[in-house]
């Protein structure tokens, strides 16, 4: 079954928006998956199979249109380019590129590294920057052109449909005009030369016209990796002869149909070799089969190298642990790894976890999954990593089953993931009792990409949709607002919006107001934790070992951050006001959580209190604006129960984050409440929480005779004690004498010679 992200690439269903009525109660993810997404997916897969077998002519027609588009752009650039720009272009390009004619041919490496352009991306040469954006344009469905040259230090790479709209053509003109329609499209990147590198200073990705991606052409370019040397040479000859890319695709398709053994469709190495061998009448294998075999060897060697690295880690650090999945040929396909510290952290903070699979090793197209959590300081914890063979639901099921096995069997209360249907199905099967949610930013980001032209043609629909999603406080408000927006902008027939509506209960924040998803919206993790953790450190084309090395760096950084948090725990934080409740909160929470509470206290001063019903209902109205409010609304109501002394705000922050909101804090000030009531002090955000939970965990592990957990416990205690006494030479010497005495006694009990265990002391002191 295709992933939710893949579903977004094709139309899903023909049902009008008005045919589906809002439901007042929430549906489980499993129901949504089986009743709506799965049906559409099955139909789409059938349609795709149809297209692959019966619509070659249609693909060629699309290729012809793409070729004409390339012709028009290139001809226009050849006419409009002035001598200085031409000279600049040639100086930034390569000889090999100039030999390939006027058409853009992406390199295999560029296709592997292709992703959405972002501000701040840097490139060694202007040609690299131009190639990156042109490759993105090819895959997205438009053509890029390079414009302004400001002393060769600033360039605009724009959509070819930029500029004033083309005047209406004469309908009586018989001769065909070889041109394209300009729409004043604003999609572009501005590239500037900064400190010897070319940087994307400005990026605009929204088009005001339909895009025409050509997946067949993209797959063809990617297939170069599997071509034989003879085929690559032939391809280069065609390119040097200025043959358009789509015509080259047609030539190779005809070769495939004529010779029967030429296949450029990406397949599993094993199945690719088998299928190629079956099409050959002789016993000698064709070059493609040999190439696939070589590819499989390369991938396996990379995995074997990663396994060797993991084994070395296990030897150096007894707390490190990994597990692998093998296929029927005993070849390693997936790996999961973690360490004892992460296992303890999961046991303590595993009530909420984030799973992200958005990062892929393009070198072998292997997804990298990270499992992260949030500690009592509100900081991200890397609980484990997995290198997966593919993105199928079965593979994700193995990952979650391994997660439960390795991390002690504890089931999280809530999970948030990127929008991925197979991932969601795996969670529904392995962890059916867990509350599942897709990142809102991921869902909305994909929507903005898929229907950018549709939105651009409808004025403020994007802004209104974002506001509706972000600021709705009740399900009814969201559902009525959605229906009104769809009707107002005549969007009931947009199939992607229909798809978003059908799966709304697994991504829209309003359906998760009462569930524990700490700081999910304020953290803005729509990019995905994988990108945050690995971007700027590991390139997709790097070897797998690089990801493991980055994992080690992240864990070391986490240890340093923990040390800093421990040191801060012994200091008194600064207060911005003289309010007793601020002073009280500074003695309760960890430093980072106190800063979040302090921010709420500051924002509370922007509201006035109005009595709706004395003693039970109060209305908070904003009279001053402040930066980054969680909800862009001017009024909230707080409901009070005097008997139970409970306060419930419309924004539901306490249910989501387990912290009181600025609206309740403002009401506390109005009512003269100077301390946070006990029922609103959640132990999870206090300093003592981890210490107490860690003690319980280690006692539990000791009962199970878990040597790895013992090692982690001893290391943690030694580290804490060392930090306290290292500045006092007298205490340090006294401790070392006592430690030597204890060591001798323990080893003597086992009948061992202390001199044979000097390495043990070295390990402790080094750590």
Main features:
767 residues, alpha+beta, seven-stranded mixed sheet, five-stranded antiparallel sheet, 31 helices, globular, disordered N terminus, nucleus, zinc ion binding, FHY3/FAR1
Explain how this protein is built:
This protein is an alpha+beta fold. The chain is built from 31 helices and 16 strands. Strand 13 and strand 14 (617-622) form a beta hairpin. This is Protein FAR1-RELATED SEQUENCE. Residues 7-22, 36-55 have a biased composition (Basic and acidic residues).
What are the SSEs and their pairings?
Elements: H1 4-7, H2 29-54, H3 56-80, H4 83-92, H5 95-99, H6 108-112, E1 122-123, H7 126-140, E2 144-149, E3 154-159, E4 188-194, E5 197-204, H8 215-222, H9 229-240, H10 245-259, H11 269-278, H12 287-316, E6 320-326, E7 332-339, H13 340-349, E8 352-361, E9 366-374, E10 380-387, H14 393-406, E11 414-417, H15 421-430, E12 435-438, H16 440-450, H17 452-456, H18 461-471, H19 475-488, H20 495-502, H21 520-523, H22 529-534, H23 544-569, H24 580-586, H25 591-604, E13 607-613, E14 617-622, E15 635-641, E16 646-649, H26 653-657, H27 662-671, H28 687-703, H29 707-725, H30 729-749, H31 758-766
Parallel strand pairs: 8-11, 11-12
Antiparallel strand pairs: 1-5, 2-3, 3-4, 4-5, 6-7, 7-10, 8-9, 9-10, 13-14, 14-15, 15-16
């Amino acid at each position: 079954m295709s992933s939710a992200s893949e579903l977004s690439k094709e139309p899903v269903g023909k049902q009008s928006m008005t045919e589906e009525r809002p439901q007042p109660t929430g549906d489980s993810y499993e129901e949504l998956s089986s009743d709506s997404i799965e049906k559409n997916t099955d139909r789409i897969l059938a349609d795709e199979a149809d297209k692959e077998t019966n619509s070659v002519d249609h693909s060629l027609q699309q290729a012809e249109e793409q070729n004409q588009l390339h012709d028009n752009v290139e001809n226009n650039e050849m006419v409009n380019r002035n001598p200085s720009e031409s000279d600049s272009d040639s100086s930034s390009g390569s000889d090999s590129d100039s030999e390939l004619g006027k058409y853009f041919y992406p390199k295999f490496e560029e296709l592997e590294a292709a992703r959405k352009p972002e501000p701040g991306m840097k490139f060694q040469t202007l040609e690299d920057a131009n190639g990156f954006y042109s490759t993105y344009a090819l895959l997205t469905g438009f053509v890029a052109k390079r414009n302004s040259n400001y002393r060769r230090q600033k360039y605009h790479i724009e959509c070819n449909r930029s500029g004033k709209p083309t005047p209406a053509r004469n309908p009586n003109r018989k001769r065909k005009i070889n041109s394209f329609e300009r729409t004043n499209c604003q999609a572009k990147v501005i590239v500037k030369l900064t400190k010897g590198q070319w940087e994307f200073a400005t990026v605009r990705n929204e088009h005001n016209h339909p895009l025409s991606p050509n997946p067949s052409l993209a797959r063809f370019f990617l297939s170069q990796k599997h071509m034989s040397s003879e085929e690559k040479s032939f391809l280069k000859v065609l390119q040097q002869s200025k043959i358009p890319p789509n015509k080259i695709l047609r030539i190779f398709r005809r070769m495939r149909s004529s010779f029967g053994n030429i296949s450029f469709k990406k397949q599993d190495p094993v199945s690719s070799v088998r299928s190629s061998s079956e099409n050959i009448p002789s016993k000698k294998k064709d070059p493609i089969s040999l190439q696939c075999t070589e590819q499989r060897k390369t991938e396996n060697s990379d995995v074997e190298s990663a396994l060797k690295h993991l084994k070395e880690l296990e030897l150096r650090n007894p707390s490190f642990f990994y597990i692998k999945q093998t296929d029927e040929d005993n070849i390693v396909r997936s790996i999961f790894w973690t360490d004892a510290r992460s296992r303890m952290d999961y046991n303590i903070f595993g009530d909420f976890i984030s799973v992200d699979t958005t990062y892929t090793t393009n070198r072998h197209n292997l997804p990298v999954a990270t499992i992260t959590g949030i500690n009592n300081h509100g900081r991200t914890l890397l609980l484990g990593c997995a290198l997966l063979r593919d993105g199928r639901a079965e593979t994700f099921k193995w990952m979650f089953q391994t997660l439960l096995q390795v991390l002690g069997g504890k089931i999280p209360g809530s999970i948030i993931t990127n929008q991925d249907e197979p991932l969601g199905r795996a969670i529904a099967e392995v962890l059916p009792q867990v509350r599942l949610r897709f990142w809102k930013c991921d869902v909305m980001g994909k929507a903005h990409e898929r229907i950018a032209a549709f939105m651009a043609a409808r004025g403020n629909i994007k802004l209104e949709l974002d506001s509706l999603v972000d600021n709705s406080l009740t399900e009814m408000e969201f559902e009525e607002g959605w229906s009104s927006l769809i009707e107002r902008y005549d969007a009931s027939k947009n199939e992607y919006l229909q798809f978003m509506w059908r799966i709304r209960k697994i991504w829209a924040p309003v359906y998760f107001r009462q569930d524990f998803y700490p700081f999910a919206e304020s953290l803005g993790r729509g990019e995905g934790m994988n990108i945050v953790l690995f971007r700027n450190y590991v390139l997709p084309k790097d070897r797998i070992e690089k990801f493991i090395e980055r994992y080690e760096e992240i864990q070391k950084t986490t240890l340093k951050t923990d040390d800093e948090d421990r040191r801060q725990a012994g200091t008194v934080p600064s207060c911005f006001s003289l309010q007793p409740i601020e002073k009280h909160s500074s003695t309760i929470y960890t430093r980072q959580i106190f800063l979040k509470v302090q921010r709420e206290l500051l924002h509370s001063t922007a509201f006035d209190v109005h009595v709706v019903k004395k003693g039970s209902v109060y209305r908070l109205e904003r009279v001053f604006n402040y930066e980054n409010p969680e909800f862009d609304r001017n009024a909230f109501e707080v409901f009070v129960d005097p008997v139970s002394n409970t306060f419930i705000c419309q924004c539901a922050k306490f249910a989501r984050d387990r912290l009181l909101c600025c609206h309740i804090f403002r009401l506390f000030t109005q009512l003269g409440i100077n301390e946070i009531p006990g029922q609103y002090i959640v132990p999870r955000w206090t300093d003592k929480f981890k210490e107490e939970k860690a003690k319980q965990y280690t006692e539990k592990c000791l009962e199970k005779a878990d040597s790895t957990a013992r090692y982690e416990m001893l290391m943690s205690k030694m580290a804490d004690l060392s930090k306290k006494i290292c500045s006092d030479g007298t205490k340090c010497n006294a401790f070392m004498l006592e430690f030597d005495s204890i060591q001798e006694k323990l080893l003597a009990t086992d009948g061992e010679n202390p001199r044979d265990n000097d390495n043990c002391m070295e390990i402790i002191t080094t750590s």
